Amino acid sequence: FFSSHCDQIFFLIPSQISSIMDGRKYFPAELQSLLEKHPQVRVLKLSDQMKALMTYIRSENISREDFVFYADRIVRFVVEEGLARLPYKKTVVTTPTKAEYEGLEFDSALCGVSIVRAGESMEKALSQCCRKIRIGKILIQRDEATAQPTLFYTKLPQDIAKRYVLLLDPMLATGGSAIKAVEVLMDVGVPEDHIVFLNIISCPEGIKAMVDRFPKITIVTAEVDSHLNDKKYIIPGIGDFGDRYFGTDLFDYKEASDE
Question: Which residue of the set 85, 117, 142, 213 is catalytic?
């Protein structure tokens, strides 16, 4: 059903702009306009299966084991769609029937880069799709008081400038960490249009910040949420993805009272 090799993809997930629910702080037309203006932002089609998976991981009552299981499934969909955004070239192979088959193969070297720590949760799915892929690390901490990112650590393949890069981070909130990560990649020679940013849940603020700063990168997301609250968490969101995936302490995600 899914390919286990990077040079052959047998199942591609269709992409389209997902519908936006009523009652959100960003008007549907405004968000639709943003996405239509930037076709490099790819939102997965929410089939009933995908909507169910998203529902499972959003529930505050789900166990950590189930959260990891369903999150891994969603990430696999996102990774497959990200791979579909890469360049391919024609190739011919011989089948066991000794007939020739005209197909496709990757037209460039590839690597993954995860934004530590939450981005590491997406490495498993990427490695399952591309078994020998190289994966770099970027550690960026967000100041919870100012929501501003600070770079602490990088470890990247030496030839990364010659590769297409799948940048991994499950959440796109303010866009600060992702923007900082893209800056790091471009500083070492990766072209902007060779970066594909993969995430599970995004919001209009984060998307706008990314495309305004880097109009040539590709963004693949499973679902676009409503807005950021006063603590800069995505609403309705999922809480802290890394905490829930790796089983560490949680923060208080509720919006502050007006009282």
Answer: 142
Output phi, psi for 200, to 5 deg.
Answer: -95, -50
CA dihedral 198→199→204→207, nearest 10 degrees, is -30
Active site residue 174: no
Q: Is the pLDDT of residue 19 over 80?
A: no
Q: What six digits make up the tokens of 248?
A: 């560490």
pLDDT in tens, 46-57: 889 999 999 999
Q: How many helices (H) and strands (E) does the chain have?
A: 7, 12
* Contact between residue 238 and residue 58 where contact means Cβ atoms under 8 Å apart: yes
163 is catalytic: no
Q: Which of 18-22, 104-108, 215-219 has the lowest mean pLDDT?
A: 18-22
Task: Tell me if residue 73 is catalytic.
Answer: no
Would you say 165 and 197 are in contact if contact means Cβ atoms under 8 Å apart?
A: no
Whether the predicted pLDDT of 250 surpasses 70: no
Q: What predicted TM-score, i.e. pTM, was given to this entire model?
A: 0.82
